[in-house]
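Much of what follows relies on a compact textual record of a protein's fold. A record is reproduced here so that you can trace the correspondence yourselves:
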Amino acid sequence: MNANVAVDNTRAIPLWNDPTLPVTARVDALVDAMTLQEKTAQLYGVWVGASDQGGEVAPHQHEMEEVVDLDALLPTGLGQLTRPFGTLPVDPALGALSLARTQTRIAATNRFGIPALAHDECLAGFAAWGATAYPVPLSWGATFDPDTVRRMAAAIGRDMRGVGVHQGLAPVLDVVRDARWGRVEETIGEDPYLVGTIGTAYVQGLESAGIVATLKHFVGYSASRAGRNLAPSSVGPRERADVLLPPFEMAIREGGARSVMNAYTDTDGMPSAADEDLLTGLLRDTWGFDGTVVADYFAIAFLKTLHGIAADWADAAGTALHAGIDVELPNVKTYGGPLAEAVADGRIPEALVDRALRRVLTQKAMLGLLDKDWDPVPAALDGADLDDPAGLRGKVDLDRPENRQLAREIAQKAVVLLSNDGTLPLAGPRRIALLGPNADEPTAVLGCYSFPQHIGVRHPGTPLGIELPTLRDTLAAEFPDAEITFARGTGVDDGDLSGIHEAAQVAREADVAVVVLGDRAGLFGRGTSGEGCDVETLALPGAQQQLLDTLLEQGTPVVTVLLAGRPYALGRAVEESAAIVQSFFPGEEGTHAIAGVLSGRVNPSGRLPVSVPRGPGSQPATYLGARLAHASDVSNIDPTPAFAFGHGLSYTRFDWADLAMDAQEASTDGEFTLTCVVRNTGERSGTEVVQLYLHDPVAAVVQPVQRLVGYTRVELEPGHARRIRVTVPADLASFTGRDGRRVVEPGELEVRLAASSADPRLTARVTLTGAQRHVDHTRRLHATFEQEPLAGT
């Protein structure tokens, strides 16, 4: 330790290295001992790539930033290492060794011995070469199953923590407002309650493994005009409060998320990165968040270059720091020299630096990074010979069988059967025509933040690192006695019509035609779905609709399968397909799940997290609309979807009956209970998803016609039944009133127990009595579901 460090000489170790002391005391002592340059060094990251030879990481050259001189930076310390695994294809064991060696150097070079906090992407699994590619978040939403998502997140977190990563940049809690937006695949759905509950479960799982979960993008990113990435957002304060903010509120309050990432967009002229009312007033002062706020990549610089509200880099730094952004990512730009110089000459108060620094150091202390016995060697390398990098290659498995089994379970639960005339499940077909651009494409199951699609595409010739069986492969295994003939027909988006005739001929000669359509995930226009891959309409990309329409004319039953990142209008196929199977980028085990649904080995139980439009030009539209947002006599545009939010079919049948309520009235600060019986009247086991919607006929401000306030999955054997008991707090009827405060009003409510937003099965009415009541972020957030097996079933 450098002699210039002020320490208590009566102590064996400096205060900040002593884990027996309160974190506050340790952090205060460290802040007091630091120079200004050492303070600001903790507030930025450096984008690096781990070495595939096990050597130290190297700074990543990004087209938006100049090369960082790591040697010059390290003597004052370093706050974060950006994406050591998610930048280059690196064997996981050698990546862990590379990170450990770099952390050793970082700690040895700065005079306090502080290592960096390492973060990586984990949107659909750890974004590292060779790591399990799980289904994308839109598939998480389709499961309506927080428990399984929680288990998945815990597995992802264990893999990340095991190789030395501390923070994961997930989940995305943006609520879909316009399905033309390219990042729909990264979201959980179009309903804030579904997004909140599934997202909170993901946070709980990730945090349980010791990974700092990062909520993004706070807030309004998904509400950009015309579905364009980074376009301005024009939501009003009520939509922001009642639709966009609740998932973040829930994930902080119930999930324990320790980090939040700002949104790129501006709302009514105020960029999120500069919004003190949002990042400090609401997030910290009202909600009590005490973690770190990290900048979305380049967002602070964007205050100057894109938003035009900062004159120079120092101005951008001061604006963001004042608003409440603690850490600049991915690279040092504004929080380095420009910030230090502005503090030194009095333009920016040093107190703002200290405020952010305390949050950063507190998090590092809680992660054990300030402890005297901190060890840079992660658990995955315990007992390994670190002097033999070649011997480590292949020793760390990030795609273990238990991971793949979990990925398959989620994929199976997420497949949505949209329609079926009885053709499915396929009963021993002799000849199957397998058609379409995604039928024999391994990466058709992956989203844009999967490693192969995000990074691997930049390294042609590098193995994928994981097994990705195509649907052609898994159908051949699922139907070993069938003759399967493949024809591509057309590409995803090339518009090529030359192969459609061949596909039609193959279809005519088959017993059933399975046509596999959808997206190719990519970034910034390199795909049809993904970040920066926005679309003008929800028509199928390229010539896929022409292919589909031609196949529908051949006289052979057509089963339409979608592997996509967003919902698409399917034209005449909605009525004319024998069946439609929707899967949202289901991950590496996805084709096994789809093949199982087609054969009947898997009884589908997925439900739509987003509505499927009837026409390609009806956006923006979600089920969560006020009366004027629905079909009316005063407009010739009908936004009614082909398949509604929450919709999904099964291979068995369910009967809903015996609705009862404990009372017809409840106070505005009370609760009410209703019960019903759900029975499996079919011939095989299956899962029904009971959804609870609230309709408020008369309110002080315009309300959605209905909104989801609860749900539960009900698994039943044939002939068996369960009594579902739902206790509903009056708090769930709250909304943002005329004065901007959240209110529960007295009056009549309609409560719908439904199989989808368009399929209410049982409807009850209750009157809330008593005084109008204001509620806040401490209100009750959930209905309570109980399931009771009925005697004799």
Notes: Confidence is low (pLDDT under 50) at residues 1-7. The two ends are 71 Å apart (CA to CA).
